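Much of what follows relies on a compact textual record of a protein's fold. An example makes this concrete, so a full record is given next.
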Amino acid sequence: MQEPLQITFRGFPHSDAVEQKIREKVKKLEQFFDRIIHCKVVVEAEHHHKHQGNLYHVRVEMQVPNKTLVVSREHHDRRAHEDVYVSIRDAFNAAMRQLEDYSRMMRGDTKRHQNQNQEAAE
């Protein structure tokens, strides 16, 4: 990465263990796609009065050549996102899928639609 990783905690105190897990996940992204320019991760605890625990929201923003990829996960399974590590896992899995799609697009391995195939044959 050309610029240092930025990790921000909101709504709860800094955790060395959580930071280490994020650094491991970012390293895996870099091993897959070594052209990441910058990565910013925000981990936020949302406090709910009627809820037993905090819900964690993880946002991953990656600057790659000619594009910014953003993962901002909604809480589809609220109980799972009571665990910060599950929230991190889900966000980074989505980030990996976006990097895979972007990498395919850069290589020109994207799917062609039926109309494009017919026009090319004519």
Q: What stands out?
A: The mean pLDDT is 85. The two ends are 44 Å apart (CA to CA).
